[in-house]
Amino acid sequence: MRYKTVLVHADLSRHAPERIALAADLCAEHGAHLIGAAMTGISREVLPNGYNVAPGSLLAGYFDPLEHAARQALDAFEAIAARRGVSYEPRLVCDDVADGLVLLARFADLLVVSQDDPAESLGYAAPAVRMPDHLVFHAARPVLVVPAAHAAQGCARRVLLCWNGSREAALAMAGALPLLQRATHTTLAWFAPAFPVDSASAQELADALAFLKRHGVHAEPVLRDPGHDTGHAILRLAAELDCDLVAMGCFGHSQFSELLLGGASRTVLREAALPVLMMH
Questions:
Q1: How many domains, in total, are found in the chain?
Q2: Does a structural domain hold residue 12?
Q3: What is the pTM of this model?
């Protein structure tokens, strides 16, 4: 399996070059098409027909700098994609950043964004709204969140695939298959509060391993009791195994609000120092 279309957020953030380079590396490995999307930041509800204001007007004085910044971001995107030698396409979108990415993600196999960085705010959303959380909940595609803490080098080779039997975990496993098939080592980690595993759970684990094997992924099972903090248990195991990617389902307490993100998902999205693929 291969990703055919990868969508990456292009902006003027200091994290953008790393994010775009990783997305381009994925496209090079998968033979995929890369779309770099830069948004003006103005909701399509405000400008439903796109950016079309009279030059020299009061509105132009407000909107022109936003369009200029988006075009600068796309110039930087094109330079990185061209150096990687991949098929690419810049896309200027007159919309709010999060909503614009959600709409475009419907036509991509993977969405690549950066982890929130409290030290750098570009005004994409209200402070209470976390963009990666919003995208994971609404994009209906796997979201690869690139860490802000350090440079992610190349494509993942050692993957921690988290499993707990949930719908979200199953979606993440399927969404990560193209990455898992190219990994050199995959660990299927089952986080559950009680061991030994009963017969029904043992069969479920065997079915998960068999599913992966039929897709050419030979995973090593690891059973862990996460205690009262599954998020940190995931990050500790990833560090212990020297993983360079975590793939997991995103859990929330409400389907209506990313503000009610589950504890483990919130911890991993906020604190991970390695790329995280999430799906809800």
A1: 2
A2: yes
A3: 0.91
